[in-house]
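The aim of this short unit is practical: by the end, you should be able to scan a pair of folded records and say something sensible about each. We start with the first protein, listed as its amino acid sequence and then its structure tokens.
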Amino acid sequence: LLNEQKWIDRQSRMIVLSFATYNPIFDFWCSCTFLVEMPPSGVFFTKYWVQPFRPNMDETNAETSSNYFDYLRFAIVLYIFLFVFPAHIVHKTNNHKAGLWAFVNLTGICDMIIIVFFYVAFAYRWALFKLNKKTLDVVNEAQTRFYDFYDLSQ
């Protein structure tokens, strides 16, 4: 078909097919790039990149609600850090276990693990989703010129 339409001929060395698909059931995009190289030796080399991605977290009501629950978790962790820890230290200081020994018990270790895991997950999700372009912006840009979605999937 490509040969009949004169898109390729005997001097063609590469064919690249790149497109993006959307699955509304799972709310995922997929960047697909297929490459066929035809060197003078006559041997065909093929490569492909298929990368599913979700470029934005704020597209649906469920995703927006998920973000609000993340903010609520952030407030709870901040409360633990600003109010529970100081009260815990004061309590341990009054019982002659001051300093780092205030956290060497089940409650202190659990509080520290909750705070560390929350902040790591929160920072990772924020960096992963908030630093990408909005899907609508990308689609609008793709209508005026060719836009490869592969960079969004990284």
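Turning to the second protein, read its sequence before its tokens, just as you did above.
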Amino acid sequence: QPYTLILAFLQKLDDLIHVFEQNSQPGPFVFISSSLFFAYDAAFHLSSSSTQHLPRVTLRLIDFAHVRSENRTDSASLVGLHTVRTALANLLRQSTESFHPSDEQQNDKSSDHAQQIFSSTSLKPTPVR
């Protein structure tokens, strides 16, 4: 399904956000102008028709040239991560709304799967703290 790749990246992004939120105490590092690297196994994604298994994806924080040792909370990185998360959640919503398989029975299954995705509290837009 077209949205499984986005869903897999959202789950990885939620894990990264959790790490930053768990370490919300001031110091020791502030990440300035770092980047997110998104990668996935295209062969697996294209060959898999199952909605039971998410594609294999990797999400990494990269570009540490401007990491500084400061005794303050890195709230800007959390704002950036939540902004990317909101964009992916919006893209996921759009892809599930526009996906229309030709088989009516398959369409019902896809609709049910999309409902399960959006009823999950972990995939609702998260407020920036």
